[in-house]
Structures are given as structure tokens and as C-alpha cells.
Amino acid sequence: METRTTAACATEPPWCSGSGARVTTSAGRLFPGVNNPPTIDTTNPIMSSLCPFAKLASAGATCPVKSSSDNKTTINHTDDDDDDNEKTGNANTDPRVVPPKCPFGYDSNTFKLGPLSCMVCHALLHQSSKCTPCSHKFCKACILRFKDCPLCGADIQGIEPDDELQGLVDRFIDGHARIKRSHAAGDGEAASDNKTKVIYEDVSMERGAFLVQQAMRAFRAQNIESAKSRLSMCAQDIREELKSKQDNQELCSQLGAVLGMLGDCCRTLGDAPSAITYYEESAEFLSKLPKKDLELVHTLSVSLNKIGDLRYYDGDLHSARSYYARSLDVRRSAAKEHSAVASQVIDVATSLAKVADVDRNLGNESMAVEGFEEAIKCLENLKLESGEASLEQRRLSVLDFLQKQLDDK
Description:
Layout: H1 7-11, H2 20-30, H3 81-88, E1 128-132, E2 137-139, H4 140-143, E3 158-161, H5 163-176, E4 190-191, E5 197-198, H6 209-220, H7 224-244, H8 249-268, H9 272-287, H10 294-313, H11 317-337, H12 342-361, H13 365-380, H14 389-407
Antiparallel strand pairs: 1-2, 1-3, 4-5
């Protein structure tokens, strides 16, 4: 097989870089708060900035931000809930409501880098590891790249797992991002150990947004295992909710986006079979939804193209063409309904280039030329406004590739 570089491979990289910002935009829409500091949803009476761990903390414990004499991290929780209620205007005296105190020193709606964060990837610690002799702590994957401590500059003589700290991180995630509600008890309620229903008033970001945010931070810092772990948790939680809300389009959209991101993680790790599995499942969920949402259309078409890319590089050109053609059909339909959206026209031209490139490699030169010419016509007829410089740059890039393909015939 003659190896060629397709136009779309350059225009549709994984979700953390390049045009991946478009996929990030999708994640931001599906999981509000992902790209911005999380805010409290005041329209939902069940949600406020309260911590479900509050009752786990003892009154006389020590804040994890501070170190005790033996350097052990403990939990701090002072008995000043009444003051917080006055500040927040919360006069709720319902004993079932967990008071707004986080024993870890912060809550998820005001999440900042802290004792549970890695200073390299800026995400929550994953496989927490301690450097010796300085005892600074990082994600295992992050610190393995260094010979000197990134914080103090000391020579790293060894790296030891910190299971105790990782346990705190896992508890923080379980409380702030993975609160399980009992469907039988109704929304916003969960049963405590003593069978008393407790209303957890945290979940300060939309469900799943916190985990996606942490995954994206880790992915950008090349801590792929951390990103994959957080996204897997998110996907698991959405699947659980879908069991009782099978026709919920928002949940299906969220799961489709998360599965696509998991595919990117596996692809980056070199696990092509797993990547294809995630992309196919992503496409399956997204294909069930109405194609009126342009972000959904983009996410679906990109997942199909990524499967095609992996099949292409594996030498299965017929399978690759099938997925590229499906993506093209999705984009054609969207372009017909949204003919004024310039990005849709460029997406169609990109998909035409992918299909034509495979046709050429399969020996169907006439079909390839026809596809390249149609794509060129689409881009030449596209008129952009002066303020659309980024789209113009992308249009010219794809157009240049297409013209070179015809010059090579």
C-alpha cells in the first residue's frame, strides 16, 4: 500500500491539541464548567457548594494543608457551620442536609491547586508518588520524567508510592464528582449507613464536568493514564444514569463525547484496538440522536473519521473508506441544513478529501479525481467574512492539499 498523508489527519487531531479545541468546545457544552472555573447552579435547589464529606470529619482534626509534627496528613473540620450559613444565606435547618464544610480544605465549585493536586499536570493526583529524600508528591507518570524534583530541585534518589494520600484523593473524587443517588429515593437523595436519607448538596458542577476537567488537564500534560482513569469513571457514572433514563439525549451526548475522549487516550497510548472500540461505541450512541446540533454532528463525524484513520494506517482501505464515507454523509446532511455555516462546508471538503485519497490508493483514480474536484469547488465557492481568519487559514490549508493531489495525478 502506498502511504499518503490525508488532509483530515492534519485537521482533526486528538481533542487536546490543534483543532481539538473544537472537541473541547463540545465537552464544554456537554459538561458546563469544563473550560471555565466551575460555578454553582442556583436554578437547581438540590445543588449548592456543600461537601458530602462534612460528617466524616472530626471536630478536633487537622487541616491537610498543614503538616503535623510527624508529617502525617489528617482531616480538619471546625464546628462553625452556623457562620457559613449566615454568609451564604442558607437558613436550612433540615438535619438531613450535610453542612457546607469540606474536610479537605476546599470544595469542587472553588477547586484550586492544593494538597491533592499534582504540580506538574495540575490535575488531581493519580498513582500518588513521593520523591526521596525531599518527600514532594506527584503523579507517578509525571515525576518519572524528572531526575530533579520540579519543586525544590533536589536530586531524586527514589520514588515511593503514597497509598495514604491516594486514598484521600479517591475519597475526594467519590464525594465531589461521583455521588451516587438512590433512584428509589428520588433525585438528590442517598441513603447513609444508618438508613437515614441524606440530601447531598454538593455536585457543584454539572455531573461529570469535574472529572472531564481533570482528565483534560492530565491529557494536556501527557499524563494519559490519569486522563483515562478519570474519563472511565465519568463514563461509568453516565452509564448508571442511563439505566433509568435510556432516552435521555443529553446523557447520550455526554457519553458519546466521553467515549470519544477515551478513544483518544487509547490511541495516544498506542492501543489501536481499544481506541477503535471506544470510537465505535461513541459513534453508536451519537448516531441515535437527532442531527440538529452542530457540535453533536462534529463529534460524531470526527469519531467516524478517527476509526477510518486507524483502519487506513492498518492497511484495511475498504473499511477505512466505509467510515470516511459515513462521516461524509453526516457532514453533507448537516451542511444542507446549515448552508450558511462556513465550518460545515470545510468539514465536507475535508471528508471528500479523505474518501478520494482512499479511492486513489484502491486504484479508483477517476473517482478520486472527481472527489478532489468536488472538494475544491466547495472551498473555492466559500466566501468568508474578514473576521473569520482562522477559518480562512483552514480553508486555504485544505485547498492547497487538494490542488497538490490533482497535480500528482
